[in-house]
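Practice problem: Amidohydrolase 3 domain-containing protein
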Amino acid sequence: MSAVLLTDVRTAGDAHPRDVLVRNGEVSAIAPAGELASERGVDQHDAAGRTLLPGLWDHHVHFTQWTIQRQRLDLTATESAREVLALVSEAARDASGRRRVVGFGFRDGLWPEPASLDALDQATGPVPAVLVSADLHAVWLNSAAQHELCVRTDASGTLRETEAFAVLEKLDSTADLTSEDYQQSAADAAAHGVVGVVDFENDDNATLWPQRVASGVNSLRVEISAWPDKLAGVIARGLKTGDLLDPQGLVRMGPLKVIVDGSLNTRTAWCWDPYPGIPTGSPHRCGVEAVPVSELADLMTDAKNAGIVAAIHAIGDRANTEVLNTFEQLGMTGTVEHAQLLRDQDVPRFAELGLTASVQPEHAMDDRDVADVYWEGRTGRAFALQSLHQAGVRLRLGSDAPVSPLNPWAQVAAAVTRSREGRAPWHPEQAITVQTALEASTRAGLKVEQGDLADLILVDYDPLTCDPYLLRSMPVAATMLAGSFTHFAL
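Answer key — structure tokens:
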């Protein structure tokens, strides 16, 4: 492995120029600018005053879904069923022998008209069509796709939660993804300064990720998860959280992942209060308890006994209460994934129980309007990042890609500004500082010191001093993983 010398480097919040020498995958030396210029046998690069930071992590991705969505019909800009149907109708006409039309990215929470099986059938004819919601918690299928996938819906043509996840698994099993497809996704992540991800894909990750690394998908560190149906197999292999799974040292065993409730856009997040417009007596008036609490406790106990931590999806405030209760009951550590709506009294419990809140700030920008409708009167405690931080809770930021793009700078910008596309900040009292957001997006704080692992990035602006509205489009000039460039634009 060759040594690399970066000259004229700044560090976050410090305008003094320095040189940084990287050797054998570590930061070997840091000195005032010019003092390391005599080093021989090194690849020297002028950073031209750019800022050096530890590499960024995306702490919540669905990597296969993120990779697949590039091949799917893009529905993310649609705002109504009518707009979706227009795109799908055109795609069905141009299907050219493809097995089916698969779209991704609709959000139906505020549609003026509901999804309809008849309308989708009329738009697509005999071409099977499967449309995946942006939050991955719902699918809209025409009759041809239902016949092909052996599922049945009501008159809406939609399936939600567990039934929707089953459809996604069938779609994934027929996807024609190559190592090159995964390499491209990893390269794109590196171009945003990403050195590592926590992958919550529902798959045999302990087998598949080492295979991907061996086939050349080696520009990211990956912590993999195990869903309930894969937990017994992981335990049988003797895997514990933190165990290395590949010879290159890039893949590690991560947590058990359990989805306890649904999502806001699908109106299935499990809440203490009912959703407006849902009739009294409806079994899901307050959302969905996707995994009963007793079953959750059994799963977490099995994981704890096997040395595996837990990462539990909880979006609604009732789900978060029950998950916190279960962690407390078991005396177990781990993360609560999303933690979108919280009762005030539950906020300090995260710190008291030693739990991490793994949050996705960009979801607040995507969901602000639907939250104002379905969580009316409660949005002051939605996406409550500052409340969690003030309570001493450890934060981790992620994208939930493909629900939002695999780009940590979008998450940092959303966390800091609570704004996007020129709109007024939404609950700005819940904004956190740039330093807090970046520290929640790394594994090594913001300092770069001698002896550190050389997972590093060079960015054009100092994020601590630049206009915060520049953060979303932060140019990344280089990304380095263990001393080797995975992205280079100097």
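Discussion: The mean pLDDT is 96. Students who identified this feature from the tokens alone can consider the problem solved.
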